[in-house]
Write a structure and sequence with these properties.
This protein is of the alpha+beta class. The protein has three helices and nine strands, in the order αβββββββββαα. A hairpin with a 2-residue loop joins β6 and β7.
């Protein structure tokens, strides 16, 4: 009787130990994702979101997305909030099956990886880049005037004084000289005639 009771107590203890040990030994696993596994999407997602059974950590390259022909989406900075991993993406590629690949670090330090396949029913065109800007030519009015030669500048400066020869009011000097000679001659002539009339 004692042996039976002891065996029963031992069995209960072993069962209790096993039941508490199973959760501790369980590995982190993916509970849900967006896009969901096997989903068919008419429009591509703007981000990938993975929810795990416990808090995880990520390293560079934790999330990637590949499509038909090895087409790779551009993945932005991956962030973690406890059990939820979020990665912004830039989709591109034809319609077909795509695969989200992930690799995270569980709470006990073990790496956990997996894949989430989904389908795009419409192609995603590549983003159109803006054409390079070309420098505009300066307007014709802003062009520099051709330089003036030194000889032309000298000629232009000397031209207004060409007919004046230092005279006053624009009258040449020789006119003043001739006038003085005529006046002097007239004075001499008047003096000679006055002397003859007295004699």
């Amino acid at each position: 009787m004692f042996v039976r009771r002891f065996s029963a107590a031992l069995l209960l203890s072993a069962t209790a130990l096993l039941s508490t040990a199973v959760p501790a030994l369980a590995h982190t696993e993916l509970k849900s994702s967006n896009p969901a596994k096997g989903a068919a999407l008419a429009a591509p997602p703007a981000q990938i979101q993975l929810t795990f059974s416990e808090a995880v950590q990520v390293e560079p390259g934790a999330v990637s997305v590949a499509g038909p022909g090895g087409e790779q989406w551009t993945v932005g900075q991956v962030t973690v909030a406890a059990q939820v991993v979020t990665a912004p993406v830039t989709p591109v590629g034809p319609a077909g099956q795509y695969t989200v690949s992930y690799r995270v670090i569980s709470a006990d330090g073990d790496p956990v990886s997996g894949k989430v396949p989904f389908t795009l029913t419409a192609a995603v065109p590549a983003p159109v880049s803006a054409p390079p800007s070309t420098p505009s030519s300066p307007p014709a009015s802003s062009a520099a005037a051709p330089p003036v030669s030194a000889s032309a500048a000298t000629t232009a400066t000397a031209t207004p004084n060409a007919g004046q020869s230092g005279g006053s009011g624009g009258i040449p000097v020789w006119v003043w000289i001739a006038g003085a000679i005529v006046i002097a001659g007239a004075g001499v002539l008047i003096g000679v005639r006055a002397g003859k009339s007295k004699s």
